[in-house]
Amino acid sequence: MGSQVPFLRSFAGRELAVDLGTANSLVFVRGEGIVVFEPSVVAVDDRTGEVQAVGADASRMIGRTPASIRAIRPLRHGVIADFETTEQMLRHFIRKGGGGRLPLAQVVLCVPSGITKVEREAVQEATLAAGARAVYLVEEPMAAAIGAGLPVAEPRGSMIVDIGGGTTEVAVISLGGIVSSQSIKVGGYEMDEAVAKHAWELEEELECLVGGRDLQTGMLRRLELGSGELRHALDAPVQRIVRAVKDTLEGTPPELAADISDRGIILAGGGALLRGIDTRIRSETGLQVARAESPLTCVVLGAGESLNELEALKRAHPGRGRKARGRRFQQRR
After folding, report:
1. Spatial CA neighbour of 88 closest among 50, 117, 133
2. 274-316 confidence digits (pLDDT tens)
3. How far apart are CA 311 and CA 5, in angstroms?
4. Which end of the chain is more exposed for a tag (fewer CB within 10 A), N or C?
5. Cα→Cα distances 64→14, 61, 211, Å
6. What order do you get walking across the sheet with 24-29 strand by strand?
């Protein structure tokens, strides 16, 4: 990065990588590691419009607030549903990453691969408005692959399946670029919804006790629930994920498909922790499937690794970083 690096850092503040997820947000600070891992939740007072709490504090308010205070998630399927609230949430997390102040940081931000140009611009504007000096976008499957330790810069095919709270990203990567990919709006929240809509008592022996609101009567109730019932309830969203994996494989050039056949598929994201999903994908594709070492953090760790390449990002996208796309990434050798 040349002799200007010390001056640049003293002027620009910290260098952050942010995984702004539908369920959780993580912040990685260069030289320090992960400093924020909190739910993507904001508590807002409807009377004044003021933010009452963000992250873990706001998450504890869900279902426990007065009528005038709403605990909301400002992102839906990995993109901004509420711009102003997202800006406030980003400001809070960037401030935390800056040690309690707005650090005028340069930010590498992870985004779903399937978002539109308008959605890209919205998330960049929100990050800049939250206090960032410059923002560069890196697509989530690329960041996940880097964080999982896959050799993304080599001329070999690597496949990553990142199952998040709002989206599932499937990608085949080679020579620092995404060759074939699918981004679908299915993740952990759709799985939760499928269970909530489906669950009922069975005659067979069941295994665990769950509590909540009955969607038919509106009353609170408890019931026992078994793994077989849950598998049946989750079948539809899981099948959509499997279909996305198959479609991505079908769109992969034969030479890279042969690499994936030899090396298998890596799962990342919170959805990778769903028991048996690796076995299901293995059964449906005939390929070896393994979880990343740290499924919940590999996206932000991969984005943190890309902080080493800020100068390359600047050369590729001059200016303030507003138009950074993060489609390609070259590992240091």
Report:
1. 50
2. 888 999 999 999 999 999 999 999 999 999 998 887 766 565 5
3. 10
4. C
5. 36, 5, 16
6. 33-39, 24-29, 15-20, 106-111, 134-139
